[in-house]
Amino acid sequence: MAPIQPKTPAEIECMREAGELLARVFDEMGGEVCEGVTTDHLDRVAAGVIRRLGAKPSFLNYHKYPKTICTSVNEEVVHGIPGSRVLEAGDIVSVDMGLIYRGFHADRATTFPVGRISPEIMQLLQVTRECLARAIRAAQPGSRLFDIGAAVEELATAHGYGIVRDYSGHGIGRKLHEYPQVPNFVPPKGSKAREEGNPRLIPGVTLAIEPMINLGTHRTRTLSDKWTVVTADGLPSAHFEHTVLITEDGPEILTGEQPALKELELDTPA
Ligand code: MF3
Ligand code: CO
C-alpha cells in the first residue's frame, strides 16, 4: 500500500492561497445564482473572477472539458456543461470548480437552491452538506482514508439516500487528481479499492473530499454529450466538496465556508 505523500510547508502555503482564491470566486459567483439566469452566466462570472485574481481554471481543457465550471441541475450529478439552460425556482444547481494558482490546484463544489425548493430536496442538501462536514471531521492525523467514507456512509444511509459510487474524492496538489481516490463509502471486501489499502492520514496531506448524494438510487449514467452524469432514476442529486489539509491539530478547510442553507428557501408544505 502506497503511503500518501504529504506536501512541504512551502507547498502548503501555495495550497492555502489557491484555496482562499477559490473561496472568493465561489462567494462572487454564488451571489449570481437565482431564478432566470443561465448556467453559462455563472460560468462567465466565475471565469472573469478567476482571471481577475490572477489564477487559471483547472477544468477548462481538462480531458477537453469545454468550460470553467461544471453546473449540474436537479438529476444531474456531476460534470454538467454550462449553457443556455435557464435556472427556475425549485431547481438545485451543483457548481463544481477548480483553479490553479502558482502551480497548485484547489477544488470545491456547492449545491445551491434556486428560489424556493421542496422540503424533501432541502433535506437532501442539508444532509449532503452535513456529510461533507462529518467527512472532514473524520480526516484527523492518524486516522485512515476509509474513515472519511465511513462518516459519509453512516449519515447518508441513515436517511435512505443513495451514495454515488462511480465517482470519488481525490488527492490534490500540483495535479487536480492525485493519489489516493477518496471514496464516499467503505470499499467492500474484495473490491479493488479495498485491496489497494487504507493508508493513514498524516499532517501535510491534501485531499478533495466530495460526497455526491442522491435522493434515490446510487446508480448513474452518462448522457450522449459524454460529460453530464445523471441519476439512473431521474431523482435529484447534491454535491458538496472542499479541499482539506490534514494538520497536526486536525483538518483545515482550504476552500472557505459552505453557504448556510436558509429556512427561508423551504417551500411551504401543502
Ligand atoms: N469536479 C471534478 C472533481 O471534483 C473534476 C471535474 S473535471 C472536468 O474532481 F473535466 F469535468 F472538469
Ligand atoms: Co474534486
Question: What is the H-and-E element order?
Answer: HHEEEEEHHEEEHEEEEEEE
Unreliable parts: none
Shape: globular
Radius of gyration: 17 Å
Count of individual domains: 1
Helix and strand composition category: alpha+beta
CATH topology: Creatine Amidinohydrolase
Mean pLDDT: 96
Task: Name the helicity range.
Answer: 25-40%
What is the fourth-level CATH superfamily?
Creatinase/methionine aminopeptidase superfamily
Largest beta sheet, briefly? 5 strands, antiparallel
Task: Using the 3D structure, state the CATH architecture.
Answer: Alpha-Beta Complex
Give the CATH class. Answer: Alpha Beta
Task: Count every beta strand, where a strand is a DSSP E run of 2 or more residues.
Answer: 15
Structure, described:
With 270 residues, this protein is an alpha+beta fold. The chain has one domain (9-255): Creatinase/methionine aminopeptidase superfamily (Creatine Amidinohydrolase, Alpha-Beta Complex). The chain has helices at residues 9-30, 39-52, 119-137, 145-158, 192-196, and strands spanning 56-57, 69-73, 76-78, 92-101, 104-113, 162-163, 169-171, 178-182, 206-209, 212-214, 220-222, 229-231, 237-239, 242-247, 250-253. It has a five-stranded antiparallel beta sheet. Strands 1, 2, 4 and 5 form a four-stranded antiparallel beta sheet that branches. β7 and β8 form a beta hairpin. α3 runs antiparallel to α4 (145-158). The termini are far apart.
